[in-house]
Structures are given as C-alpha cells and as structure tokens.
Amino acid sequence: MTLNRRRIKILDLIREDGHAKVHELSKIFKVTDVTIRQDLEILEDMGYIQREHGGAFLKDIGSFVKSGQVFNQTHIEAKREIARKAVTFINEGDSIILDSGSTTTEIAKLLTNFKELTVITNALNIALILGENHGINLIVTGGEFKAPTLSLTGKMAADALKNVHVNKLFLATAGISSDMRLTYPGLSDLMVKTAMIKSADKVYLVADSSKIGISAFANLGFISLVDAVITDANISNEHLKKIKEQNVDIYYSVTS
Fold it and tell me: What is d(CA 114, CA 116) in angstroms, rounded to the nearest whole number?
C-alpha cells in the first residue's frame, strides 16, 4: 500500500476539514466513487483516517483539539519561514485579521511582544496564544467549530466581520489550483474568506509551496483576489511566473 499523489491530496483535504464525503472527493479528483472508497480504505489501513458511511473522518482528532494544536503540522519549517517574513509587514498600531490555519498560527506566535496591535481571528488557538498579551486588542468571531483548524466558520463568522475595517489580512488556503484559484475544503469557508477580504486594505496570502497545484472542493476565485503571496523558498519558477501573471506581488525568504 502506498500514498500516491491522489491519496496524499485526499489526506491533506481531510486534515484541513476533518472529514470528507466520497461523492465530493470523486468530483474533485474526477474518478469513480469506487476508486475513492479504495483510497479511503488504504488510508484507514495505514492508520490516518476512520471510514464511515459515505465518507471518512480524521482518526484521533480529539486529542489534538484537547491539546489546542492545529492538526496539520506538515511542512512546518516552511510555514515558520513564511511567518517570519509575514511579521515584517506588521507594524505597531496596525489592525489585522489572522485567518485560521497552521501557518497563521506560526505568525501569531511571533506577535506576543507587540505593544499596540488589534487582531481579529476566527481561530481559537490563535486567541489563546495572543489573549494574555495586554498590548493586543483581541477580537474573536463566532461561528461553527471546525476541529482540525480549531476555527470558527460559516455565516455567523462571516457576519462578525461586517462593518469591520483592518489594515491587513493574512489569509490561508487549503490549495491553489493549477490555474491559480484559491480553493477550500467546504462551502462554509468561502463566505468567511470573502468577508475577510472585503474588510482589509491589503491582503496577504500565506501558503507554503506544497499547496500550489492542489484543488480542494470549493473555489473562492482567482489568486488576483489578494495583493501579495508570502511563500517559502521552494516555490518553482513556473509557479512564480503564474502568480506574477495575475499581477500579485510575491515574497519569500531563505530559511536560516
């Protein structure tokens, strides 16, 4: 049994959303339901997931929720590299939105010494990281709880961002498709991300290079929705060119 490219992508999607349905995965990967069921069976046999009727969910997700950790810890050094670069764009006195996710969590860890900062987030773990800092005015949205990212999503989260204005948004994504669209595991994510983008003067997408070429279930729109991409130094020249063709700035730094 091996984790071929499709199975790796399936696992990545389940790690983002916590669960997945067979019929949705078959549409995403353009294969039959039978093929997806075989993939899920192999992922279950390897100990990554647990199958249920019509789909599958992450195994042992409860232990991560209790520990306050985001489930997806893959490519963590690249995410820390991105976080170090992202923080250089944040100034004292800024108001920012930090989206949920493992990369934005790494950004939050670097903000604990700020003296004057307003942070809005839909991530419970980020709230716990920043909540004890008296120099940070912390605002948390409501919404439906999503375990793998410890996030709040859906209409309630989106509504909390109405009439909000911030200087900068640090936006996450589950994948950037080959034609440079921002994609997410569920439709409930789209309304939240859209509300975040509308609220911000400047939008920075923080995404490690492994996410480029990945297409999740729901499509937000072209990458031109953001002003800049902050990624890691492993991004290919081909992907650099595609992003620049969308008139989006791109930043990265070499890992020290």
Answer: 6
